[in-house]
Design a protein that fits this description.
- The complex is a heterodimer of chains A (149) and B (167).
- With 149 residues, chain A is of the alpha/beta class.
- Chain A has one domain: 3-Layer(aba) Sandwich (Rossmann fold), CATH 3.40.50.
- Helix content of chain A is 44%, strand content 16%.
- In chain A, strands 1, 2, 3, 4 and 5 form a 5-stranded parallel beta sheet that branches.
- In chain A, α2 packs across α4.
- With 167 residues, chain B is α+β, with helices and mostly antiparallel strands.
- Chain B has 2 domains: 33 residues; 114 residues, Rieske Iron-sulfur Protein (3-layer Sandwich).
- In chain B, β6 and β7 form a beta hairpin.
- Classes of the chains: A alpha/beta (149), B alpha+beta (167).
- The interface between A and B is medium-sized, with 14 and 15 residues.
């Protein structure tokens, strides 16, 4: 599910089943030498989250990406978001990012860090294969959490 | 000078007939083309998308087939990749939609080790029999949808979905 009117309506009606939020954390770095890398990361994260959404549409809601500039981020952003999302009825909250900054926060939140793979020069089929491989890494993380209840 | 010279009068009338003929044809051809257009329109195959799966390679075991088509949303065109589970039942080829009828996840064949001969939805453990029939007691409320299929040059073509006709 995506954060749009029709999917949110479905979420409201089926809170028992749609119990997981996926929050992409996207860094926007406008420094000349980092801008391209930043764009590649954003592209990768957005492609991957929509791929995850396609596979697990009925169980999770993909939030619009939380984007920030390096100077505008603060350490406990994920913790604060998690509290809000828990209050809204999500049992599981996963953050997904390419930014190393968040991995230092310890295990207090479910942070999935993945290295950005530049997708821009890839053929559609190769791209799909790469995303499938990445998804296969993410699935165990989701299913262990789901199995805990 | 040859004996049968073309007179000025003859030359002019030939030329005028020729040019007039071209002009008439130029006007009539589009009209005729418009008039018979409905007959020439291509039928069938329009909604069907070719896959890379050979019909002879299809077995009793369901396999995942990817196919992509161009989707037009108002002015926005995008390539959409879709998936079907294809297998053979007797002589009949079956293509089932992988979209779980509960909340729309992708089902997988034999992913649940306790039920290797069923479709399994990882989201809420919904299960379906091989023909797509939903198993009572699991969340889905109706069978998996089925695709219309065709064969072209030995390859499988996948068309629009319809309600399951097998269960």
């Amino acid at each position: 599910m995506y954060f749009n009117a029709s999917d949110v309506t479905a979420f409201m009606a089926q809170k028992d089943f749609i119990d997981t939020a996926i929050v992409p954390l996207v860094s926007i770095d406008l420094a000349t030498e980092k801008m391209k890398q930043s764009g590649a990361e954003a592209d990768f994260i957005m492609s991957l989250t929509s791929f995850i959404e396609k596979q697990f549409k009925g169980r999770l809601l993909v939030m619009p990406p939380f984007s920030y500039m390096p100077s505008l981020k603060y350490d406990d952003l994920p913790q604060q978001l998690e509290v809000q999302l828990h209050n809204a009825g999500f049992k599981h909250v996963f953050f997904i990012t390419c930014d190393h900054f968040w991995t230092s926060g310890g295990d207090s939140v479910n942070m999935i860090w993945l290295p950005a793979i530049p997708l821009e020069s890839m053929d559609v089929n190769v791209k799909k294969k790469i995303l499938e491989d990445q998804l296969r890494q993410v699935i165990p993380l989701l299913s262990t959490k789901w199995a805990q209840i | 000078m040859s004996k049968n010279r073309v007179s000025r009068r003859q030359f002019l009338s030939y030329t005028l007939t020729g040019v007039g003929g071209f002009m008439a044809a130029g006007m009539l051809m589009p009209m005729v083309r418009f008039a018979i257009d409905p007959v020439l329109q291509s039928h069938g195959g329009g909604d069907f998308v070719q896959t890379e799966l050979k019909v002879t390679d299809i077995t009793e075991e369901p396999v995942k087939v990817d196919f992509s088509f161009e989707q037009v949303d108002a002015w926005y065109k995008s390539d959409v990749t879709s998936v079907a589970w294809v297998y053979k039942s007797g002589d009949q080829i079956i293509a089932l939609s992988p979209v779980c009828t509960h909340l729309g996840c992708m089902v997988d064949w034999g992913a649940d080790s306790a039920h290797p001969d069923q479709f399994f939805c990882p989201c809420h453990a919904g299960r379906y029999e091989k023909n797509g029939k939903n198993i009572a007691g699991t969340p889905p409320t109706r069978p998996l949808d089925e695709y219309d299929i065709q064969e072209k040059d030995g390859y499988l073509m996948i068309g629009p979905t319809k309600a399951n006709t097998l269960s």
